[in-house]
Write a structure and sequence with these properties.
The structure holds two protein chains of two kinds. Chain A is of the alpha/beta class. Chain A is 44% helix and 22% strand. In chain A, the strands form three sheets. Chain A has a seven-stranded mixed beta sheet, with helices on both faces. In chain A, helix 2 packs across helix 11, helix 8 crosses helix 9 and helix 11 packs across helix 12. Chain A is elongated, with a radius of gyration of 23 Å. In chain A, 51% of the residues are buried. Chain B is an all-alpha fold. Chain B has one domain: ABC transporter involved in vitamin B12 uptake, BtuC (Orthogonal Bundle). Chain B is globular, with a radius of gyration of 19 Å. The chains are: A alpha/beta, B mainly alpha. At the A-B interface, helix 7, helix 8 and helix 9 of A face helix 1, strand 2, helix 10 and helix 11 of B.
């Protein structure tokens, strides 16, 4: 009897300790859910984003975490996979919110998945920060009519003016541009580029579209080069280096602009050094990183021991901006978080790895809910980087 | 769209080089189908693994790319023989089992490739650097080399099948397996050989594709689909049909995107296959 009583007390004590510690643990933790493509053909981007986000949270937690109303919280990231499917994205969002207690969702880089995630977060009253979109202004993108939604990745067409201005300055004799674009709804961005080009006395003489998933760019570029361009502008895609390779193999020696965040290292590895001549890209020169970039690259090497992927910078910044918004809002309430982000609308209000940034978008999207930050521009001649900088749009 | 004659030269050469890659994969599929009576749906992954083998040999170990391709062919031939011996031979008289096995193998090999190789941007060294000028337009040298290699390999296979004892034995096994067996031709030996040659050809095709196109763990899916379309178009079990069909599909893939745009380009090969099958259901070179 005595033995049984002792056993019962012991069990009760253990249970009580567990419950108390769970409660204590739960009150010291904020959960941010990430939904990114961790499998499939673009998982290299999704995994890089996840890792960038994770490393930033590790740094912040090591510094004591985030403070809300005088209390310190550690931030925990729970990652789910979009599986390149809106259905899986919705399920992931529901799981993160209901099972894991996520008050903030970060992620989505494909418009259909972003839309699916937002439908859930809107219904559940949870704050959603989009990682990136391919097509700014797409119905899945932010707008003034969509509450509790912000985008922490810049608009890809922010770089158009920067690229065109740099082109006009560096290659003043170039007049005719042919655009190469994937056939996924880039009409708005093409029109934007045409307008910006004409302001610099350049004209877009032709637009050649190719199917998403194209692996052989020679037929596409046979058509492009038959139009005799001075400049080929390759709209944002992951196939910039393959397009450059095709253009050079067909004898094109003019200026090639790769409007994609792929650095000179990737172009050199895929297209070869000899092809990287008269090349302008919006990727970061990882051979010449800033001190913060070097910190991220060192952390990556130490933790993962794999080749570094520059996309992780985007999520590194995303995590930092989210926590800054929490710090301003002093709350996880989605409306307060949205207002906090919108308040960062003056130049320099946000620090990113690319430089001083701000929240923007009132004119274009109806509210300041999109990150505007400096764009990387790198110029290569004969395989070497001759210019690399970050320019504000 | 009116194009200058020189541009047509570029388009046709590109089409023929693509056709060469398709011929290699289709010849392998046809050989395996003729001798073993199975559709090797993991053939696309053998193509992909052959490419990665060349990457590691040529880039990581610094071996000459042509030597790496040859070594990769032998490596994948050995892999093919292992597949025949330990997977497909167990279900040699069944219809569904080989399909299930090869489908499962596709999933395992593809997922395994993602885990082992990752999705990082990689490329195999060029078969030949630069381009040469022909009638005022530039033709990439590596495409010409791929075309020549594919043609040579197809011709060597022809000579092997027509002029060697083993090759004649394979032809006999394909035409009449029972009679061949009565003549003392070991069907298992023929199956091993078919898988070895088929896998070796796939590896060569994959290696060249990894150099001139893209190297990814998913690179085998589309060529497999093309290969299946080619063997249906050319006639199931017909090697000459595989060659003709491969060249035809390659030319379509080279010409149609330039003339008619991306949407038509993705549909054209399938539409042409359907039309030909409506007129001649056994395929262009197949027998009724």
């Amino acid at each position: 009897m005595k033995k049984q009583l002792k056993l019962k007390i012991g069990i009760l004590f253990c249970l009580a300790s567990f419950i108390c510690s769970s409660v204590v643990f739960a009150s010291e933790k904020i959960v941010i859910g990430t939904i990114l493509p961790l499998s499939g053909p673009i998982s290299v981007v999704g995994v890089a984003l996840k890792r960038g986000f994770e490393m930033r949270l590790e740094k912040i937690n090591a510094q004591g975490g985030i403070e809300i109303n005088g209390k310190k919280f550690q931030v925990e990231m729970i990652a789910e996979d979009t599986k390149m499917s809106p259905g899986a994205s919705s399920s992931s969002a529901l799981k993160l919110i209901h099972k894991d207690g996520a008050k903030i969702i970060y992620g989505g880089i494909i418009e259909s998945n972003i839309d699916a995630i937002y439908k859930v977060t809107k219904k559940e009253g949870v704050f959603y920060a989009i990682a990136s979109v391919n097509i700014p202004g797409h119905p899945a993108d932010v707008s003034g009519e969509k509450p509790n939604l912000v985008r922490l990745g810049p608009s890809f067409d922010d770089s158009h003016t920067i690229d065109i201005d740099y082109l006009a300055k560096s290659y003043p004799s170039a007049k005719n541009i042919v655009i190469s674009a994937p056939d996924i709804g880039y009409e708005g961005m093409i029109k934007d580029l045409e307008t910006k080009a004409s302001k610099n006395g350049l004209s877009v003489t032709s637009v050649v579209k190719w199917s998403f998933g194209t692996t052989d760019f020679l037929p596409v570029f046979i058509k492009i080069i038959a139009a005799k361009p001075d400049v080929i502008f390759a709209m944002v895609s992951g196939q910039g280096p393959y397009q450059l390779m095709a253009a050079r193999q067909l004898g094109f020696k003019g200026t090639f602009i790769a409007n994609a965040p792929m650095g000179p290292d990737i172009f050199t590895a895929i297209a070869g050094k000899s092809s990287c001549d008269n090349l302008i890209t919006n990727g970061v020169d990882l051979g010449n990183p800033t001190s913060e970039m070097k910190d991220v690259m060192d952390r990556w090497k130490k933790k993962y021991n794999e080749p570094f992927i520059g996309d992780s910078f985007l999520a590194w910044d995303g995590a930092g901006i989210l926590l800054k918004a929490i710090g301003i809002a002093q709350s996880l309430d989605p409306e307060k978080l949205t207002a906090a982000f919108e308040s960062l609308n003056k130049p320099g209000d946000i620090d990113t790895i690319f430089g001083k940034a701000k929240a923007t978008g009132k004119d274009r999207f109806g509210a300041n809910r999109v990150l505007s930050r400096p764009v990387s521009i790198t110029h290569m001649k004969k395989g070497d980087v001759v210019f690399s900088d970050f320019v504000n749009p | 769209m009116a194009l200058p004659f020189q541009v047509w030269v570029q388009i046709i050469i590109n089409g023929l080089s693509l056709g060469g890659l398709y011929v290699l994969i289709a010849l392998g599929l046809t050989l395996i189908l003729s001798i073993m009576g199975i559709l090797q749906l993991a053939h696309g992954e053998v193509y992909m693994l052959g490419a990665y083998a060349v990457y590691y040999l040529a880039v990581k170990m610094g071996i000459n790319v042509y030597a790496a391709i040859l070594f990769s062919m032998f490596l994948m031939a050995g892999f093919g023989m292992l597949m025949e011996r330990f997977l497909f031979r167990r279900c040699e008289d069944k219809v569904l089992s080989p399909i299930i096995i090869s489908t499962g193998l596709t999933l395992i090999l593809q997922a395994g490739a993602v885990i082992v190789f990752g999705l990082y941007e990689r490329s195999i060294p060029r078969l030949s650097e630069g381009s040469f000028e022909l009638m005022g337009v530039f033709v990439p040298k590596d495409r010409m080399v791929a075309m020549v290699i594919s043609a040579c390999m197809a011709y060597m296979l022809y000579l092997f099948l027509k002029r060697t004892k083993l090759g004649l034995g394979m032809v006999a096994s394909a035409q009449n397996p029972q009679a061949a067996q009565l003549k003392g031709i070991d069907p298992h030996k023929m199956s091993l050989l078919a898988m070895a040659i088929g896998s070796g050809f796939a590896a060569a095709g994959g290696a060249m594709a990894g150099s001139i196109l893209m190297l990814t763990p998913f690179m085998g899916t589309l060529p497999l689909v093309k290969g299946l379309a080619i063997i249906v178009l050319g006639g199931m079990g017909s090697l000459s049909g595989a060659v003709f069909g491969g060249i035809l599909i390659g030319l379509i893939d080279g010409i149609v995107p330039v003339l008619f745009g991306p949407l038509t380009a993705s549909l054209a090969p399938l539409v042409i296959v359907i039309i030909i099958l409506l007129i001649r259901p056994q395929g262009l070179f197949g027998h009724e």
